[in-house]
Amino acid sequence: EGVLPQEYTALKLKVLEWAPKAEEALQGKLPEGASVYLCPATLRPETMYGQTCCFVGPNLKYGVFKASEKEYFVITERAAKNMAYQGIFAQEGVIEKAADLVGSDIIGTLVNAPLSFHPQVRVLPMDTVLATKGTGVVTSVPSDSPDDFAMVTELAKKADFYGIKKEWAELEIFPIIQTPTSDLLAPYLVKKLKIASPKDAKQLLEAKELAYKEGFYQGVMKVGDYKGEKVEIAKPKVREQLIKAGDAFAYSE
Ligand code: A2H
């Protein structure tokens, strides 16, 4: 943990169709017409064009928290407490949980992914999601995040083991950012550092650091409204665009 607060962008991925277990757990617990969103926290809002799925920790506990009369967020209790005091919920300081969910209940849920070339993506498991960081929900951008690329590769390889449909993990990975090395930096680094699975923690950490530095300082947007602009410049613009559209909000911790 650093000394400075981490400024995240929390996205709103609207639930379009619940996985059966989550559907059951939510039976009769939400008001008529309410929308529920999974809210991943990201440091790379400019990469959201490349979302291919949304990760939850299969063993983590989540709640469905009331953000306003008609909107509920799936996040950890820890994140809900932080949000309640950041003016994110309609009622300042009030934490109201409509239901409990375990990550594994949510897997297979279909959500809308704002800005993505894949407007509808599935919720998939990732064991390395930490309960102690962000919202406990992570949006997957395999083009630019080595962790995400390693995980979707693993999920596609062992779909039966993970209890998912292979095609949920095999969405096309589009180039989002051009750097001097590649326009698919995460897959490039995973290959170069011979990362075979999400368990190769040491190499993944190295890949993550390389990808983050090169992407941020030398990257140029290949897509979207800020195509051709440097990532450094485009990042706050894409963030504002998402927030203005009601598809994201600022979250810090
Ligand atoms: B990032 P920091 Cl394209 N557990 O978003 C594990 N990882 C988490 C998490 C949690 N509870 N909450 C957020 N994260 C991930 C995009 C992205 C991210 C890209 C490239 C790098 C990258 C798409 N995934 O992060 O420890 C989220 O993944 C590398 C740093 O607070 C979030 O941003 O610095 C990032 O880690 C926050 O990590």
From TrEMBL:
Q: Which domain of life is it from?
A: Eukaryota
Q: Which family does it belong to?
A: Belongs to the class-I aminoacyl-tRNA synthetase family.
Please state what the protein is called: leucine--tRNA ligase
Species whose genome carries this gene: Diplogelasinospora grovesii
